[in-house]
Amino acid sequence: MNLEDLLFYNEYEQFYLMSKGSNAFKHFCEKAFGRDFSQDGFSDVSQVDRILPYIPKKNEVHILDIGCGNGKMLGYLQQKTNAFIHGFDYSENAINTARELFKGKSDFRQGCIGEIDYPEEKFDVIVSMDTMYFAPNMSVFVDQIMKWLKKDGFFIAFYQEGDVMPKTQNETTSVLAKLLLEKNISFDCIDITKESYELLLKKREVAISLEKEFEEEGNRDWFDMLVAQTDYCIKSYEEYSKEMARYIYVINKANSMRETE
Description:
Layout: H1 9-21, H2 23-33, H3 45-48, E1 62-66, H4 72-81, E2 84-89, H5 92-101, E3 106-110, E4 123-129, H6 138-148, E5 149-161, H7 175-182, E6 188-191, H8 193-209, H9 211-217, H10 220-229, H11 237-243, E7 245-252, H12 253-260
Helix pairs in contact: 1-5, 2-8, 8-10
């Protein structure tokens, strides 16, 4: 597989180089999201904290992050739970940084959805933070995720519609939801569209306040990108919600197994 043919590959290689050395971007993440996870996305620390109740309180816990970037979100979850953290990402720059930052109780691999594999029933929790869209075959990948989960494990997917994935009617009609329903995999869903709109407003305000700092670093292009990413919030929430939606899907493998028996 030619990595450069993959969705946003070159952009993310450059992004993780920038995020490693930019104090302006670090300050942006801290002020906009409440924590520097080197986010190129839509979730702040309060949304990441929604993962914590699904991480079991026991001695040996294994968490996998699909498309882990530089591992900072996993590092935060490890700090909170003392879990063994696993992550993979197609970005070599991201994985190199993750390995530098988190050396204990961790396994970071460079790899792509559809090619990388793990043992059956390995993970207590698997997280996908806006990465299901990168699967060449989402149906096959869902099966693989369920195979990797322990019998009582949780799969938590943060999922956005309106940009990479088409906007559909509601949380039960998304591409992911329809696949889960076809496979008789039950799920709970939290609609965080309003939260995401409010976060976009905050991101825009913070980015603009840091314009000079980005400029002085020579990172004007990244400042322009951050502002452009928030253009959706220029319109009212009513208009925004007609075009965009964001959900957190939570799947408990034990419940799904009972319902298919």
